[in-house]
Amino acid sequence: MKFLTQLTERLAHDNGVLVKVTRTRGSVPRDSGSWMAVFPDALVGTIGGGHLEYQAVALAKDMLAGRVPHPGSQTVPLGPALGQCCGGVVELEYRLISDKDAEALLDELRPRLQPVALFGGGHVGGALVNVLSDLPFELRWIDSRDEVFPANLPAQVKTEHSDPVHEAVTDLTPGSLVLIMSFSHAEDLDILAACLKRVRASADLPYVGLIGSASKWARFKHRLEERGFGSADFAHVTTPIGISGIDSKLPEVIAVSVAAQLLQTVLKS
Question: Which domain range does residue 102 map to?
Fold first, then answer.
């Protein structure tokens, strides 16, 4: 998303060349749909770096300077042509772009973002927002307290005050990944119960993560059993959150670990 912001800012002042990966075969640096925009004195985005990107940037700058004709598309065998070890084949599209193309480019290049519902505006929640906002996630950040959210958040982060906080579970986007880390264990329990009810009814929350220790989870299971939940429901809960082997309690480290786990969840689906 930050590349799209940079792209529109640059187009307001300069024409450029959009270089887009349209097709790939074999081992390649980036997938189809990857792009970069080349300007006379700047580069936005990437098609994977290395010799492929170096040559594509040079060709795009020659186009901008009128030194070469518009190539349209280009098929690049990475091994024979560039001596790269990847060995695959990349097809590139070259397109002259200007400010009048900005709106259409935003529609074309905007990535598909995975919805995440983050309950809790504390230190770990803030660290997670910092990490996830640079990844292909769209965040709905929810808390029962007023004025806990910082200003000037990225465009894909939407904040929401909900009191009682668990009522926000009802209208979460289907397919949302849910992270529960409010300031209150009582709130965490209510949010988790609401998520499990929704999973029972529609099975549209593929990941429900609860921050906390094994002892917290043991107490929660006992209280959830009193509300009519059982082992089949508990199987839908991930706790502790984050990938195994990273045991730090620093918010920034937890955030990286949880982000990695969310990416694993998305890539498996």
Answer: 2-109
Same structural domain for residues 44 and 177? no
Could you tell me if 126 and 242 lie in one domain?
yes
How far is it, in rounded angstroms, from Cα 154 to Cα 266? 21
Q: Measure the CA–CA gap between 83 and 87, rounded to whole angstroms.
A: 8
In this predicted structure, which of 80-84, 117-121, 184-188 has the lowest mean pLDDT? Answer: 80-84
Which of the listed ranges 68-82, 194-208, 240-254 does the model predict with the highest average pLDDT?
194-208
Q: Does residue 98 register a pLDDT over 70? A: yes
Two tokens, residue 6? 């940079």
Name the token pair of 210.
Answer: 């609860």
Three-state secondary structure call for residue 74: strand
Q: Which amino acid is at 113?
A: L
Last residue of a domain, one of 90, 109, 128: 109
Query: Between 123-132 and 251-268, two packed helices, what is the crossing angle to 10 degrees?
Result: 50
Dihedral in degrees, nearest 10, Cα atoms 168, 173, 177, 178: 0
Whole-model pTM: value is 0.80
Give the number of domains in the chain.
Answer: 2
* CATH number, position 159: 3.40.50.720
Residue 84 has pLDDT above 80, yes or no: no
Pick the last residue of a domain from 109, 129, 157: 109
